[in-house]
Amino acid sequence: MQVINTRNVHQALPKVMYLIKTQGVARDSRNGPVLKVPGPVTICYEKPKERVMFWPERNANPFFHCLEALWMLAGRNDVAFPAGIVRNMANFSDDGDTFNGAYGYRWRQHYGFDQLTRIAQALAKDRYDRRQVLSMWDGDQDLGSNSKDVPCNTQAYFSRTDTGALDMTVTNRSNDAVWGALGANAVHFSMLQEYLAVMIGCEVGKYWQVTNNLHLYLDHHRELMEKMVHPISFNYENSCPYERGIAKPTPLILDGDVATFDSNVATLLDTDMPLGMTDWFCRNIANPLLQAIRAYKAKQADRVNVAQSILAKNMPVDSDWLKAGWEWLERRAK
């Protein structure tokens, strides 16, 4: 098994691209040719709350990553909200209304109870509990399925360290390195980890992502890989805004009030212009991101300036989400 130890997802990208370039083997897949790393790969994030990717070469969409993570924490499986941000998401639905393998729905509703609440309660009661497994794979529903949306991440394991921090290990059956492992997954699961840590009343520990089949789609990401294959030729750690102190990780639930956070997230997901939100993250991060991406998608002549103005007026100046959102929009103005 290959193991990559890294500070955060931004610093992980060149390391993973180098691994795939130097050790990947050519294979065919349902979605075209890939380079696949032989054997499982583990990525260990030392600081999982530093979850935002800043590489312009990667061009990650911070609006979608953050807002989809909130949609997951709300336990949703509807197509309408994520497809309203990234239209292509609708292509992964079997019926046009819901997603078969929506992680958040499986976390909180699919099995008839809220797995997150049970896990948090158990680990708050016994910090040495080792039986806390979050299930995303349903053998009865997923084995042999022809669905367009079968979970790639299958389980997550939670435990607490001797200092009380919450560690998390996520297992994945097959993961695209760019869109999946170092894109959506690093955001979604680190936000899940932080959410559970707040529920428990503890700090966030480390995050391990264990992928059985880590691959890169050559038709889409060959150029990115070639640009990033020589991490030893430049000081990529000093290129990291977190390392340089010019962006700070944004806390998810500042005051520990999970009930208000959940209520405000529901308002955000279901209201065109949500008002009266008291949760800090929803008011100062999530809603500005949502309103900015909607302004950008409105396609008016000055849409980039309008969207950037929404971010600048409403978000903390040192927020990682502000920096990433501003730069994503800036690239579209060129």
- Provide a count of the helices: 13
Please state the average pLDDT score: 95
**CATH topology descriptor of the largest domain:** Thymidylate Synthase, Chain A
Percentage of residues in strands: 5-15%
Q: Helix fraction?
A: 40-55%
By DSSP, the count of extended strands is 10
Account of the protein in words:
The chain has 334 residues and is α/β, with parallel strands linked by helices. The chain has two domains: 2-249, Thymidylate synthase/dCMP hydroxymethylase domain (Thymidylate Synthase, Chain A, 2-Layer Sandwich); 250-334, no CATH class. It is 45% helix and 15% strand. It has 13 helices and ten strands. The protein has helices at residues 9-23, 62-73, 80-85, 103-108, 115-125, 139-142, 177-200, 218-228, 241-244, 258-270, 280-297, 303-314, 320-332, and strands at residues 2-6, 25-27, 34-36, 41-45, 132-135, 153-160, 166-172, 175-176, 204-211, 214-217. Strand 2 and strand 3 form a beta hairpin. Helix 1 (9-23) packs antiparallel against helix 7 (177-200). The radius of gyration is 19 Å and the shape is globular. The chain starts with a strand and ends with a helix. The mean pLDDT is 95.
